[in-house]
């Protein structure tokens, strides 16, 4: 079977689909992954076919405006306001993105489409081609449940009706913001909408469409009201290639003392990454713990580091995290998964989107303290949190238990089976 995967966004929006694509390819399928040009080498380096999508959205994320919005969108309403603020700039960009995705799909000539929620053209393309579409996401999104609210909403004690309402609001907002672009594409491509122009939840006949979510049921138990064709498979991990070798200075640092605390925020460090780096270094020194500071794409860096702190550009999480005392990060789905699988206590310092959601979940299962919002980060708060991550034995034991459970799962294998059945 020829499978076309569409995913738009940062490295965290791409890596799980590379892992899933490799699993599908190992099962005998031909896989094309369409994503931003920045990740072409990453996709092709893992043996998958690459589908071209322009890099404009990544350039926006990297811009000063993108960093500013990252720090100012601490809830769904602010996210919506930010989207409307960017509408004039993002509108033409969105149209070009849809056009590139469609061209990549035509070239792939697929039998089935898997799509990230950000790849909003997925269902419409499948309808045009007369093939199935499956929503595939690392976070619980789009499909309603009364068990917990949708990502971006607070966990209020208002019952199941409130929780389900949040999903309806998210789907409505997505149609409001992006529906016009899908409608225009449908008109240009001659694909009349049987239902709404943008509807990621239903198939053309109005039934709940199949969906799979790449996270563990040990972290979020399966909702009691999901239909049978919606599943959480377990995480989609992309493990280190055998040829990767850690640099000598990193091995020397790890061997020189107690396991350090990892701190890194990936591509997200906001407008003043140097200020955050200084706070982290000061908190590590004040708490007396060794640390590894991951610079990442966001520019998190510091100078004049003591011997107890090392800055690195990057290292595979599946290799690095088991060697840490604890992990501290922004709360991206993939980084959260890696820390939990390693069995390490986790502190999440979220910016926006799904990050506070994962912060709450990690805290609720007992594998980490309450999250510290980036805008509320202080040296004193970090110092207290670092001490707890290292010294709270109940938390450390619980993190190890969760890690052991996650390591028994075969998320990719479960997803491959589900996808194979979706074609029938």
UniProtKB/TrEMBL annotation:
<dbReference type="Pfam" id="PF06722">
    <property type="entry name" value="EryCIII-like_C"/>
</dbReference>
<dbReference type="GO" id="GO:0008194">
    <property type="term" value="F:UDP-glycosyltransferase activity"/>
</dbReference>
<feature type="domain" description="Glycosyltransferase family 28 N-terminal">
    <location>
        <begin position="3"/>
        <end position="134"/>
    </location>
</feature>
<dbReference type="InterPro" id="IPR050426">
    <property type="entry name" value="Glycosyltransferase_28"/>
</dbReference>
<dbReference type="GO" id="GO:0016758">
    <property type="term" value="F:hexosyltransferase activity"/>
</dbReference>
<dbReference type="GO" id="GO:0033072">
    <property type="term" value="P:vancomycin biosynthetic process"/>
</dbReference>
<protein>
    <submittedName>
        <fullName>Glycosyltransferase</fullName>
    </submittedName>
</protein>
<dbReference type="GO" id="GO:0005975">
    <property type="term" value="P:carbohydrate metabolic process"/>
</dbReference>
<dbReference type="InterPro" id="IPR010610">
    <property type="entry name" value="EryCIII-like_C"/>
</dbReference>
<feature type="domain" description="Erythromycin biosynthesis protein CIII-like C-terminal">
    <location>
        <begin position="301"/>
        <end position="402"/>
    </location>
</feature>
<dbReference type="Pfam" id="PF03033">
    <property type="entry name" value="Glyco_transf_28"/>
</dbReference>
<dbReference type="InterPro" id="IPR004276">
    <property type="entry name" value="GlycoTrans_28_N"/>
</dbReference>
<dbReference type="InterPro" id="IPR002213">
    <property type="entry name" value="UDP_glucos_trans"/>
</dbReference>
């Amino acid at each position: 079977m020829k499978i076309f995967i569409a995913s738009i966004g940062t490295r965290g929006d791409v890596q799980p689909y590379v892992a899933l694509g490799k699993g599908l390819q190992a099962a005998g399928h031909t896989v094309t992954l369409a994503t931003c040009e920045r990740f072409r080498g990453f996709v092709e380096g893992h043996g998958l076919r690459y589908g071209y999508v322009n890099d404009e959205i990544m350039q926006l994320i990297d811009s000063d405006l993108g960093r500013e919005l990252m720090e100012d969108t601490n809830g769904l309403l602010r996210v919506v306001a930010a989207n409307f603020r960017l509408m004039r700039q993002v509108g033409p960009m969105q149209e070009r993105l849809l056009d590139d995705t469609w061209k990549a799909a035509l070239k792939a000539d697929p039998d089935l489409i898997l799509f990230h929620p950000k790849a909003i053209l997925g269902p419409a393309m499948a309808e045009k081609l007369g093939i199935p579409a499956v929503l595939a996401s690392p976070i619980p999104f789009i499909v309603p449940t009364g068990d917990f609210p949708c990502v971006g909403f607070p966990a209020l004690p208002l019952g199941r009706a409130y929780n389900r309402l949040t999903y309806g609001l998210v789907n409505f907002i997505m149609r409001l913001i992006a529906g016009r672009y899908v409608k225009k594409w449908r008109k240009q491509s001659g694909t009349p909408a049987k239902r709404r122009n943008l509807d990621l939840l239903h198939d053309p006949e109005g039934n709940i469409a199949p969906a799979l979510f790449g996270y563990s049921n040990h972290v979020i138990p399966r909702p009691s009201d999901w239909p049978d064709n919606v599943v959480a498979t377990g995480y989609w991990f992309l493990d280190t290639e055998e040829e990767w070798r850690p640099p000598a200075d990193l091995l020397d640092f790890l061997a020189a003392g107690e396991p350090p605390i990892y701190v890194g925020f990936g591509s997200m460090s906001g407008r003043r990454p140097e200020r955050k780096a200084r706070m982290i270094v000061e908190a590590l020194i004040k708490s007396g713990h060794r640390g590894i500071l991951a610079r990442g794409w966001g520019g998190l860096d510091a100078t004049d580091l003591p011997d107890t702190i090392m800055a690195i550009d990057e290292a595979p999480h599946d290799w690095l995290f088991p060697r840490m005392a604890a992990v501290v990060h922004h709360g991206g789905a993939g980084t959260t998964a890696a820390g939990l699988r390693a069995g390490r206590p986790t502190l999440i310092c979220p910016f926006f989107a799904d990050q506070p959601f994962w912060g709450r979940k990690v805290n609720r299962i007992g594998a980490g303290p309450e999250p510290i919002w980036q805008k509320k980060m202080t040296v004193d708060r970090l110092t207290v949190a670092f001490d707890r991550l290292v010294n709270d034995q109940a938390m450390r034991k619980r993190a190890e238990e969760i890690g052991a459970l996650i390591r028994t799962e075969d998320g990719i294998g479960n997803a491959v089976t589900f996808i194979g059945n979706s074609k029938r």
